[in-house]
Design goal:
This protein is an alpha/beta fold and about 180 residues long. It has helices at about 10-20, 30-35, 65-70, 100-110, 120-130; strands at about 25-30, 50-55, 75, 90-95, 115-120, 135-140, 160-165, 170-175.
Length: about 180
């Protein structure tokens, strides 16, 4: 029910570097609600990605960073005639059916979004993994343990590279379909 940091400072910096190298970052509603993330590149130089939030009924509080700050955000909704967009916050209706994830990626592609990180949460990741809609997973494993919480999704693929730093291990895994 609340945000918990497991990874160390080096891992956090790496995530911010990755964010500066992509076009967009996508999260689900629960992650947006519970973590109230900024999803920007605050720890390193470089541009922040477009933030994409799956918010079926546009119920994320307007006081959360994703609505209230000065960074562009795209909200994917199930409301057919959503409120008007502005220059920083835009809204897209995408039908939630068996092709929902593909439709999201198609919409982003048409916007010129070619490099996307799906950062979470667990359910959102599971949906894209289950449909094999991923090329590479970057898995940060920490030595810290939680006694409760939501388990990270299981992913299989070809281990490309492994790095160790602080108490974290970073694995780069390629989708078997892409190798």
């Amino acid at each position: 029910g609340k945000q918990v940091w497991l990874s160390g400072e080096i891992a956090k910096r790496k995530v911010h570097i990755w964010r500066s190298q992509i076009d967009a970052i996508l999260i689900g509603y629960q992650t947006a609600l519970i973590d109230n993330p900024k999803l920007t590149t605050r720890l390193v130089g470089g541009p922040s990605p477009l933030r994409v939030v799956l918010d079926d009924d546009l119920s994320l509080p307007k006081t959360h960073h994703l609505w209230a700050d000065e960074y562009p955000t795209l909200f994917i909704t199930q409301i057919k005639n959503p409120i008007q967009s502005n220059s920083l916050k835009s809204i897209a209706y995408i039908t939630k059916d068996e092709h929902y994830q593909e439709a999201i990626l198609d919409h982003l592609f048409k916007m010129g979004i070619y490099r996307l990180i799906i950062e979470g949460g667990s359910q959102t990741l599971k949906y894209f993994i289950a449909k094999d809609l991923w090329d590479e997973a970057r898995i940060i494993r920490s030595n810290k343990a939680l006694v409760s919480g939501i388990r990270a999704p299981f992913i299989t693929g070809k281990l490309h590279k492994k790095e160790k730093f602080d108490d974290d291990t970073l694995e780069y895994v390629f989708n078997d379909l892409m190798t």
